[in-house]
Each structure stands twice: as C-alpha cells, then as structure tokens.
Amino acid sequence: MAVQLMHKDPARKLQLVTFPAGRKAVRELYMAKVTGPDQAVQLIQNGHNVVLPMGSGEPLALVEALTRRATQLQDVKIHQMLPLRRPPYLKAELVGHLRHVSWFNSDGNRQAVNEGWADYMPGYFYEYSRLMQEYLTVDVFMAMVSPMDERGYFSLGTSVDYSSTAAELAKIVILEVNEYMPRTRGNSLIHISQVDCLVENNSPLLELPVPKVSAVERSIAGYAASLVDDGSTIQLGLGRIAHAVALALQDKKDLGVHSEMLTEGMVDLVNSGAVNNRKKTLHPGKLIGCFAAGTRRLYDFIHDTPMVELYPVSYTNDPYIIGQNYKMVAINEALEVDLLGQCASESLGHYQYSGTGGQTDFARGALRSPGGKGIIVLRSTARNGSVSKIVPALKSGAVVSCSRNDVDYVVTEYGVAKLRGKVARERALAMISVAHPDFREDLRRAARKMHLI
Fold first, then answer.
1. Nearest to residue 136, comparing CAs of 156, 121, 147?
2. Beta-carbon count within 10 A of 32 CB
C-alpha cells in the first residue's frame, strides 16, 4: 500500500509524490532528514528570501545557526512579523549579508527599521499570503513545530497565520522540532514529505509577558466592555488595554472568539465561563484564531484542545469571513485619532512603531456583521499627560491605519464617541468629549478654525 501526498517541485508547483505507508516508513523518512542546525542552514544560498513564523513560532536554533553563517552569505533577506526577541543577526555590520524585512515591528526590530538598516513591508494582515504568492519568491521557510505524529504530521503550533502559505510556496522547508511547541487543531499540519531538512531542539518557547494594567486602562476597558452584548463574538488586539478589556468582559455571557491573535486574556474568559462559543454563527463551539502569543499557560491551553482551532490568516482575517459572525465586535488600539476619526495605529508621524496588522481587517469585517461593532481604544494623553492623543489632524507622515469610514466607536478613559453615521460636526464634538479635559478647549478652537463646529 502507498500513500499519495502533495509535494513541491523546483518550479514551486504542487505535485503528487508516493512513498510507502506505515509507521516504520514514516519514521525512517524522519530519521533520514534529521541533521544539526549548522548543517541545515547550508541549504540557504546568496540572494535567498527566508520566511520565518511570527512570535513564538521562530525556530531559535536555526536562526542562531544562520547568524553564525552570516558572513558566508550575501543579500539574504529574512522576512518576519512580530519577533518576540531582537533577532541575533540584526546588526548593522551584517546588513549586506542578512537583511531583516519586518512585516510588523516590535521592540526587537523597531530601532533597526527606523534607522534604515532593516526594511518594513506594509500590508493588511490577511493579504500577506497573497503578497507572498504574487510578489515574493519564498526560497526557504524555517519554522518551529511540534513533534511528528505516527502518520508523519507536524503541527505549526502557535503560528499558522502566514506560515501555512509560506510552507506551501517554499522551495526549501527546514523545520525545528520542539516538544515544547503545542499541537494545535484546525489547519496547522505539515507532513514529513513536504520537509527537506529537520533539526531537533527542545527549548522553551519565546513568551509574551502578561501586561500590567493601570487604573486608566481599566477605565477604558470598562467603557469598551459596556458596548459588548452577551452572545457577541469578539476580537482583541495586542497590548495592555486589550488585556484590560478581556478582564472586564468576564461577567458577560455566551461570548465567542474569532480573532487573529489568541491571548492570555482569552484563557481567563474561557475559565470564567464568559466565552463558550455557543452563540457563534460561524464555527459554533470553536475558538478561532491564526496565531497565539503569551506565556506557557496560554500554550498549554491551546495544546490539542478540541475547542481551539487555528487557520491561515487569509481566512481568519478576511473581512468577508469575519462579517459572517453575528454581533462581531472588534476591539483594537490606536496611537492617535483626529477629530474626524482617522486612526494612526502603527506610526508616530514618520516613525514606524508597529504595523497595520489585522486592525483594518477586523474593523471592516465587524461592520459587515449583523449587529457588529468596531471599537478603537486609546488613552487620551501621552507623555505623562502633556500630549493629547486626540488631535485636530494626525502628525505629518502618520500612516492612517483605519480611515474615518472604517471607524465606528472611539473609547478613552473619558467615555465613548460614536462616530459611524454621524456628520463631520457631530464627529468632532464627540471626539472632543472623550479627550482629556485639559485639551478640550484647544480642540474646540482648532475645530472652529477647520469649520467643523
């Protein structure tokens, strides 16, 4: 008996390959592909595009080995979203050898991007799979995966997102097998027949610490939570306010989750009984995401849990798919919002702070949903209260992550501004009402000068 599986030819097209079935044959295939990390990265050549998973899916031993080989290579580009550590190769002197291409900035790569010795590639999160298909030759995909099962399947674990597409497109697939990587359900599997090379490295995954929540953030979260009806399906973004919202939702009933990111706060929502996914109209009974970032507690929670399913970001973040959830509520944070509701959520002027991520995907998807709501949250001030984050106009060079047409509600610690369906004058007045009191008169003067009020 033989098993037929999809594999890749050098032209990056899928074709059927046949190999003997049975546990012994699968194990023999595994053992034939195991090597050390320094040997594995010898497959990477000059000019290659290397794609790495985001967050805790980063293959730590392979990246360290590639860094050791850096000076032997020229013009290798390493594409990654949201690294949870500073990449070891991210040094100005290695730029001609290994160049980092960020798809979403974090503390680990923000400085390099803004100083010009790393690159940033903008895009809506759900479209990154298509960007790879149409504009980027994926020469090598390297990822951390769970141990292989008896049928020859690994799981991409915490990072399915764009990784599943990269694995399909890559000419070369190198996997780092780690017993600490959770095995996740959904569409997370990759077969041994798709893999060119394996290394084994059992080391703890990178973690994202649980954010500490301030009184101001709890106040913002309380207002946001008041907009979430029982039976809603929610999406939460990254950061302290999002975590505060998760804490504030624990007294709700029959919530569901359809999100890009699975977070520590979602574990609390399930444990409190607030999230049971029973009222969902899409994937009822299931908690849906495309990646997870948190502590070991979160990774243990998603391990082989029937309720949790991870899918490619091209599915989870497609606004059309998101909109099929009844009462979909998207909650995301902005850095600055103007009087008409335009949101700068990824840059401070020209300074690229993070990335578009899935904010726009979910803002638009929520507004397609029957009874859906899009909520932008932010503190009213920055720099110890000396700067207003509600402004007449965004800073010069600021990236508009959500246009005024995409914004439904804006929430600060001073209340809720409902913008959708309002004229410009009403929008400006609503935004002024949720600004810090110390800045409201200045905002009124600016609004009058702009002929908004």
1. 121
2. 10
Any idea what the Cα angle at residue 270 is, between residues 269 and 276, rounded to 5°? 115
Q: How many C-alpha atoms does 226 have within 13 Å on its Cβ side?
A: 15
Q: Is 260 a catalytic residue?
A: yes
- Name residue, tokens 């090379």: 197
The C-alpha angle 384, 386, 389, rounded to 5 degrees, equals: 95
Enter the tokens of residue 96.
């001609």
What tokens appear for 295 in the block? 């502590």
Nearest to 336 by CA among 383, 380, 397: 380
H-state helical runs in 374-436: 424-433
Residue type, 331: I
Residue by residue, pLDDT tens for the chain (453 residues) are 333 333 344 333 334 444 445 678 899 999 999 999 999 999 999 999 999 999 999 999 999 999 999 999 999 999 999 999 999 999 999 999 999 999 999 999 999 999 999 999 999 999 999 999 999 999 999 999 999 999 999 999 999 999 999 999 999 999 999 999 999 999 999 999 999 999 999 999 999 999 999 999 999 999 999 999 999 999 998 889 999 999 999 999 999 999 999 999 999 999 999 999 999 999 999 999 999 999 999 999 999 999 999 999 999 999 999 999 999 999 999 999 999 999 999 999 999 999 999 999 999 999 999 999 999 999 999 999 999 999 999 999 999 999 999 999 999 999 999 999 999 999 999 999 999 999 999 999 999 999 999
Query: Contact at 8 Å (CB) between 231 and 279?
Result: yes
Structure tokens at 66: 């590639």
* Contact criterion met (CB below 8 Å) for 302 and 262: yes
Q: Which of 58, 127, 176, 260 is catalytic?
A: 260
Distances (CA, A) of 369 to 87, 110, 215, 410: 39, 34, 32, 18
- The answer for 451, left when phi > 0, alpha when psi is -120 to 50, beta otherwise, is left
Q: What is each CA distance from 13 to 142, 153, 198, in whole angstroms?
A: 19, 21, 22
Q: What element of type H or E holds 302? A: helix 296-302
Residue 195 and residue 33 in contact, taking contact as beta carbons nearer than 8 Å: yes
416 phi/psi in degrees, rounded to 5: -120, 130
User: How far is the C-alpha of 447 from the C-alpha of 426, rounded, in Å?
Assistant: 11
**Contact predicate 353/110, CB 8 Å:** yes
| Nearest partner of 403 among 345, 321, 324, 325, judged by Cα | 345
Longest Cα separation, the chain: 79
CA pair distance 192, 175, nearest whole angstrom:
10
